[in-house]
Automatic annotation (TrEMBL):
GO cellular component terms listed in the entry, alphabetical order: nucleus
Stretches for region Disordered: 385-536
Domain of life: Eukaryota
GO molecular function: metal ion binding; RNA lariat debranching enzyme activity
Name the record gives this protein: DBR1 enzyme
Protein localization: Nucleus
PANTHER family associated with the record: LARIAT DEBRANCHING ENZYME (PTHR12849:SF0), RNA LARIAT DEBRANCHING ENZYME (PTHR12849)
Pfam family name, one: Metallophos
Biased composition regions of type Basic and acidic residues, renumbered to the chain: 385-395, 485-510
Chief localisation class: nucleus
Skewed-composition ranges (Polar residues): 415-427
Gene (UniProt): Dbr1
Amino acid sequence: MKVAVAGCCHGALDKMYETLELLQRRHNVRPDLLLCCGDFQAVRNEADLRCMAVPAKYRHMQTFYRYYSGEKKAPVLTVFIGGNHEASNHLQELPYGGWVAPNIYYLGYAGVVRFRGVRIGGISGIFKSHDYRKGHFECPPYNQQTIRSAYHVRNIEVFKLKQLKRPIDIFMSHDWPRSIYHYGNKKQLLKMKSFFRQEVESNTLGSPAASELLQHLKPTYWFSAHLHVKFAAFMQHETNSKEELPKATKFLALDKCLPHRDFLQIIDVEHDPNAGDSLEYDAEWIAVLKATNSLVNVTQSTWNMPEKNGLHAKWDYSVSEEAIKEVLEELNHDLKIPCNFTLTAACYDPSKPQKNMEPVHTINPQTTEFCAQFGLTDINDRIQQAKEESSGRGECEEEEEEEMDSTGSAEEPSEYNTDNSGLSSFNPDEIMLDEEGGDEDLSTCSVDPSPDHPPEFSTSFSDIRIMPDSMAVSSDDAMDSNNEELEKSGGSKQVEEKSSTERSLKRIGGDENGNSGVKKIKRRNQAIYAAEDEDK
């Protein structure tokens, strides 16, 4: 089957779907599935905009609300993960995944689903070591810290994914797995993004948690976004035994969704021709969720996952074939994910803007139903309970809770000691939060929804690239031919092209003469927003 893969969507759903329709008209290619690797921005209303970690002047409504309200419907099944610029309050309603609109499915903090027999997994957010060992404690209304920590990857999600034994066909992460750049054309990458050099040379660019998952899961394909540059790599995995067959992962990072950008990739994926056209639960993943349910943590206390170090009675939470069989029997062997999308918030009305709408903590019926069906903890319900208990007893125990570890291993060191997971050096493609409203009062910040009819872009077919022969990339291809792809999607065209919208934005970083310590960049990518991320 044909799978379309997109990078950072930034709420431009109309643009993305129009490009797919153009592909069908011109080349008679119709994807069966669309995957989006984060920064999807499922913004329903003005309150959601307040929960997105970007400066106020970049909070635009975009077009998702039309799909949420039912005015439009996604023309192709769309599955996405979260990034670091999301309506976190909306996605938080669905920690185990669920429908954010008809035909648009969110994988949750981490998740695995099946479509036509193809096994698709993903992990949302980006890595930051100072939040990695905490529980999911955040809830709206967010403050300056939690609006960012809400999208930081947690060790429990990585631990769950590492319990999987069955092969994964496709995996998605927002930030890149650390070290993946050593398996592609690093020279060409640094030619296009010279400000990555320090992190690449010190091997600190990307997520160590994602790298750990890549080594463990060894999926056939791994797709990422976040850095807004197209990059291909081919990683041959080491075998653990002579009996184990060699495995390799074809990695592809996608550019962001903007006109005249090569932001869509089409690949051919082997599938089960006898499988149905519905999105399905993955039985092993459901069994893992049930097995690890006792590990759910909704506090700020830092803790490590169980491991074989003498401190834990149990450390292996992988599931048996019998446990998987029990899940299948519970579902009567019907794994189809119910189409139970429900509106949980008012939808944006361009004729009646509500700039002072406040976010609230919502428990989504989809999550309630999912947890009841499989006997899982509703994380948002637990958070509300914890808040009520905390307000009842006061905050006198806060310091004690910070020092305690819920697994009895508070003195264990963190799995990762560094925090250089993303863009620690200056990136002219990024919009910094520190000087552009990132410290504003979130309860009173102004919201600037885009007009009901935003400027239309003339769709360029350079937005699409069809991968030949199931994205068959050799190590030589990764070093040479894929660089031609990179040059086509960037280079001088990326520097010189300017839309009328981009010209109106002033460049950030360095003084007015462009003295920032890096090569002066002529254009601005106004949709990227990635913070100092973000958190220092």
